[in-house]
Every structure is written in structure tokens, then in C-alpha cells.
Amino acid sequence: MSRISVRGFAVASATAVTTVGAVVGVAAGGTQGSVINTEATAADATIADIPAGQQAQVQTASLTQQADVQFTQADAAALKSAQESARKAAAQTAQDKKDAADEKAAKAEKDAKDAKERKEKELAASKSDSQGTSDFTVKGSYSVAEVQAMAHQIVPADQFQCFSNIVNHESTWNYKAVNASSGAYGLVQALPGTKMSTAGADWQTNPATQIKWGLNYMNERYHSPCGAWSFWQANSWY
Predict the structure, then answer these.
(1) 197-211: b or e for each residue (b if 16 or more CB lie within 10 Å)?
(2) At residue 138, what are phi and psi to the nearest 5 degrees?
(3) What angle separates helix 207-222 from helix 225-235, to the nearest 10 degrees?
(4) Which end of the chain is more exposed for a tag (fewer CB within 10 A), N or C?
(5) How many other C-beta atoms are found inside a 10 Å radius of the C-beta of residue 183?
(6) For residue range 179-208, what is the model confidence (pLDDT) as tens digits?
């Protein structure tokens, strides 16, 4: 070790030298003046300038001081790491709670929507069932206005326009319309037309029977006439 580096070591350990010098002075029977002298010369001293018996004590004091600094730094780093881990854990917990709440709200919204659709479907079916085809006067033929009047009485008001849109495209309200290529029949162009027999044996001649069957079909397959109309607009069939 060079004299310069040794001198730097002695300066960095000035406090330790002072303390050790004081202890050594007292142990040797020295006076307060020797302590003061040690303090005054410590900053300019080198290891070579310090009596051999005190060098080990000076070095030990300096190393102890360095260890204390290192321990303090380590404690600060550990505390910072613990605080960061706690922050991340709290943030993750908050996010998990938010995700769970969002999922619960979405499920509740879906359940409410499904319940509403079921209720609408049940009401439509109930209205269709209560409005039997026998309630309408049986005639040999029906005008478009008469057929539409029947539809107004059978189809729910908020679904009528969608139902009407489909019938306009499928048969222009002609309850005897036949598709020459496929054989689809009636107002809603059932394929085959015999499907409508589930609503009544007079499905070929009674518009009310066809309307009732068409409404039930749209409710069962698309949840409502408006659901059927949305599908029709995208595909040009339903």
C-alpha cells in the first residue's frame, strides 16, 4: 500500500482514530492532552505515523464503520423492495376485484336481457294463442288490407313493422303466393308450405293461420320478428 493511499485511509478513519487514541491514552495513563493531540494529528497521519500497537485498532474501527454503512444501505434497499412488492400486490388485488365486479355486472346484464327476451316471447306466444284463427270471419278471399288488419291483431305492436318488412319482401302480402322454383308458400313463404299445418289445417286459404305460424317461427328461431328481420337484411332470407 502506498503512503498516499494509506494517508487517505487514515483521513477517512479520523473519527475512529480519535476514539481509539482516547481509549489507548486512558489505558496507558495518558492525559487529556494526548487525546487532543491525537485528534489534531489524525487527519494528517498515515498508518506509518500511527504507533504499531494502534494500527490494528484503527483498521478495525474503520472496517466496522464501513460495515455499518453497508448494513444501513442494505436495510434501505430491502425496505424499498418490500414497499414495491406491497404496492404491486395491492394493485393486483384491486384489479382482481374490479375484474370480478365487471364479470358479475356483465352476467347480471345478460341474465336480465335473456329474461326480457323470454318474457317477450312468452307474451307474443300467449297473444298468438289467444288470438285464434276462428276469431276472424272465414272468407273465400281476402284483400291486402284485410290481411294486414289480421296481422295487426296477431303480431305485437312493437314487432309489427319488422314482420311487415319480411312479408313485403317474401310475398307482398299475397297469402296464396307460391315460389315457382322452391315451392315456398304463403305470406311468409314457408318451405314447404305444409309446415304451416301445425297452426291450422286451413293454412292454404286462411291468412290468419299463416300469420300465426309465421310469428311463432320468427319467435322460436330469431326470438322475435325484429330478430328475423335483422337476419333477413344480412342474408336476404330467414
Answers:
(1) eebbebbbbbbbbbb
(2) -75, 130
(3) 80
(4) N
(5) 13
(6) 999 999 999 999 999 999 999 999 999 999
Say which residue, 88 or 166, is predicted with more confidence: 166
**Backbone phi and psi for residue 178, each to the nearest 5 degrees, phi listed first:** -130, 130
Residue 55's Cβ-count burial label (10 Å; 0-12, 13-18, 19+) is: middle
Asked if the model's pLDDT at residue 230 lies above 90, the reply is yes
Kindly provide the b/e burial profile for residues 33-44, where b requires at least 16 CB atoms within 10 angstroms of the residue's own CB. ebbeebbeebee
Task: Please tell me the distance from the alpha carbon of residue 168 to that of residue 163, in angstroms, as a whole number.
Answer: 9
Q: Check: CB of residue 133 under 8 Å from CB of residue 197.
A: no
In whole angstroms, give the CA distance from residue 41 to residue 79. Answer: 40
DSSP state of 44: T
What is the C-alpha to C-alpha distance for residues 87 and 79, in angstroms, rounded to an integer? 12
